[in-house]
Amino acid sequence: MSAEPKDVWVYLQHTKSGLTSDSYEVLAAGRKVADKLGQKVVAILIGLEVGSMAKEAVAYGSDEVLYVDDPAYETYFNLRYIDAISAMVAERRPYAFLFVANELGKDLAARIAFRAGTGLATDNVQLEVEDYTNPVLGSFKDLLIQVRPDFGTRLARIYTPRHRPQMATIRAGNFAPLRPDQKRRGKMERFVPPVKEYPAKVKEVVELPPPEVDLRGADVVISLGLGVLKDGSGRPRDPREAYQYALKLKDAVEKRHHLKVEVGATRALIYAEVKELEGLIDKANQVGQTGTTVNPQLYFAVGISGALQHRVGMRGSQKIVAINTDPSAPIFKIAHYPIVGDLYEELPKLIELIGGGVTA
Ligand SMILES: Cc1cc2nc3c(=O)[nH]c(=O)nc-3n(C[C@H](O)[C@H](O)[C@H](O)COP(=O)(O)OP(=O)(O)OC[C@H]3O[C@@H](n4cnc5c(N)ncnc54)[C@H](O)[C@@H]3O)c2cc1C
Questions:
Q1: Cis omega (within 30 of 0) on the bond before 165?
Q2: Cα of 250 to ligand 1 centre, how many Å?
Q3: Residue 296 CA: distances (Å) to CA of 54, 222, 291, 327
Q4: Which of 222, 230, 270, 303 has an alpha carbon within 20 to 30 A of 346's alpha carbon?
């Protein structure tokens, strides 16, 4: 067992076709933290025939890959995986351990943290490294600071100084993958987990169909907020009209610029369960802290105030167009192209500008 905890571990997820896109992000997050700590990034890879993915992990930023390559690990079975990873943690004692904050990452990270007797900060949108002094606990050098949206309107900085590894899940969409460097060389080490019998078996794995709304894969996102319910003078409007405008704008951008466009929404609009929008907008369209994080080339925030929980899901957009009747709406603080006005007047103008000809 090593004396002091060291290295930043990142857990890599994969499918039959290779590492998932989130895995490149967790590698980038790990690299950022490890460089600040002056430590190594160790990628944890578990499955069958993981060799090519291990090389990929090195190209994308890891210094070492600690892997399990065994038919028993071909399909995900959480108890087996948790035993294997917990054995790795107990033997090697990492300093920090990062996972992607999706279903699989959360399933693993929480249980591994429990086994390791450490904490877990979930859904981080930033990671920092700083010295930290607490009047009761004392001073700590090079602490991983986990930054995540609070329940209110703030970003919380989480300090977990006493236990190692410091564990965190990161929200996909917040850490840009590194440019691959195929010349990088890394150490590959096979780990043989303890053999154990389990009372349950995985009989079949059923792949879910791909999501109908692919917000993360979109070049342009047009998001609608509660503003669609009224016009600029406060008179109720049928929100289907705004939705149709969004579709026309989508069509115009796709045809004219050959970009992939998706329609997004705020949580407030989805939770409002507006009858007219039934079947048109649902949870799959939600952008934000509890929805999808997007980083498109262009983001349209239409009738959206720009609450923190929405902003954390779209602030990485390269350009932001915001349409809002209220000039003091927080969305204007981050908008590159602010349009103060009624969305029912401004959207047709934009469609005309981009694609020409509009009928709602
Ligand atoms: C734990 C937690 C998690 C959350 N997660 C998310 C999340 O993932 N995503 C998310 O979006 N929210 C989330 N929220 C909710 C968030 O706090 C806000 O309530 C929500 O984003 C507001 O949505 P909105 O901008 O559509 O509505 P509002 O804040 O009501 O804003 C509507 C805006 O429309 C403007 N407007 C009105 N009429 C017009 C018009 N005709 N033309 C132009 N503008 C007009 C108004 O000026 C106003 O600024 C979360 C909240 C909590 C507590």
A1: yes
A2: 21
A3: 29, 10, 15, 24
A4: 270
- What tokens does 294 get? 């997007």
Burial 239-254 (b: 16+ CB within 10 A, else e): bebbbbbbbbbbebbe
Half-sphere exposure of 287 (CA within 13 A, CB side): 36
**Measured from the CB, is residue 231 less than 6 Å from ligand 1?**
yes
| Interior/surface letters 288-311, b for 16+ CB within 10 angstroms, e for the rest | bbebbbbbbebbbbbbbbbbbbbb
Backbone angles phi, psi at 305, to 5 degrees: -75, -35
- Specify whether the CB–CB gap between 158 and 278 falls below 8 A: no
Non-local CB neighbours of 102 within 8 Å, separated by 6+ positions = 13, 22, 172
Judge if the beta carbon of residue 303 lies within 6 A of ligand 1: yes
Q: Does the pLDDT value for residue 260 go beyond 70?
A: yes
To test the ligand 1 pocket, which listed residue (282, 290, 321, 345) has its Cβ within 8 A of the most ligand atoms?
290
pLDDT digits (tens, 9 = 90+) for 178-192: 999 999 999 999 999
Please give the helix or strand (H or E) that residue 247 lies within, else none: helix 239-257
For residue range 126-139, list pLDDT tens digits in order: 999 999 999 999 99
User: Residue 281: CA atoms inside 13 Å, Cβ hemisphere, count?
Assistant: 33
- CA distances 179 to 24, 108, 295, 316, Å, are 10, 28, 17, 18
Domain with CATH 3.40.50.620 in the chain: 8-190
**Cα–Cα distance between 93 and 91 in angstroms, integer?**
6
Q: Which CATH superfamily is domain 8-190 in?
A: HUPs (3.40.50.620)
How far is 250 from 320, CA to CA, in rounded Å?
15
- Looking at the chain, which residues constitute the CATH 3.40.50.1220 domain(s)? 220-354
Give the nearest ligand 1 atom to 152 CA: 53
Model pTM above 0.70:
yes
Residue nearest to atom 30 of ligand 1 (CA): 226
Alpha-carbon distance of 147 to 307, in angstroms, equals 17
Domain 220-354 CATH class label: alpha beta
DSSP letter (8 states) at residue 35: H
